[in-house]
Automatic annotation (TrEMBL):
Active site: residue positions: S146 (charge relay system), D272 (charge relay system), H299 (charge relay system)
Gene3D superfamilies: alpha/beta hydrolase
Protein keywords: Hydrolase
Lineage start: Bacteria, Pseudomonadati, Pseudomonadota, Gammaproteobacteria, Cellvibrionales
Protein name: Alpha/beta fold hydrolase
Species per Swiss-Prot/TrEMBL record: Mangrovimicrobium sediminis
Amino acid sequence: MSDFNPPPLLRNPHAQTLIASTAPRKLPLLWRTRALRNAAQDVLLECSDGVRLHGYYNPHPESSQGLAILLHGWEGNGDSAYLLSNAQTLFDAGFSVFRLHLRDHGPSHALNRELYHSARLREILDAVAQVQQLFPHVRTVMAGHSLGGNFTLRVAAQAHNEGIALDQAVAICPVLDPAHTMRRLMEGSFIYHQYFLHRWKRSLTLKLQHFPDLGYGDSLLGLHSLDAMNEFFVPRYTDFGDVESYFAAYALTGDTLADLQVPTHIILSQDDPMIPSVDLARLASPPTLKVETPAHGGHCGFLANWRMHGWIDQRLLELLSA
């Protein structure tokens, strides 16, 4: 296992979290990944109940390592800095790479009338199965960040029952208990709360451009916190009567991972400002699950140095390589 030991100023969790998604890191990544992005195939996935999801596929000419399915976090996308960095590292090492978009993320707002919510596991299971059918490889691995890590763990837990041949899964800073994470966002840094509030509102505004009959435009203007957004949208636009039952539906705590049969690895920094690492103790402990808790890293940061090199890229490669 590689040790994560960033320089002193990069040991601050907020520095790790914020710098990892800003221009000093994103611009060099866009240049380094230009060939990967230009060669990516747009893929439309037909899931059950008429749901359609979108992704980017880069087939490796040799595919010596198999297929890696990567999943971004909430209000991220397939071109988020962390996902591009993962994708390029894995592709360079011999993986074919599929960057899957959650509903209403990336260029997918027009594909489905119903809104995204985090309990929509069925369509992600369908999408992973279809990616395997469309692009068969000897090995399939999956990795996700933040909410994408939460989905990755739930897919891994259901893979055996769903007939999904998943050889390995890695979740980076996954949402463990959504209620605790939302409390952190509400009570913690103003910057994180405003970031996600702005991104969520922007996404919902874009959705209205495609489906104006959803009719929440005037109400959206008066919602000024994530709590208010959840209280408004959950009972009206999901199958859940209240926010508490919605959060419980995609929590990983309790027995959610008890029957996990896929070899799975969680990487969660002890100083993550959004995901309380103490919640790891509330997960089931099947023998297939390994947990790694670096002291530093923030939320999906893990910048190794001021050249913006991502430690998590090499750690993923170590874990996922055949």
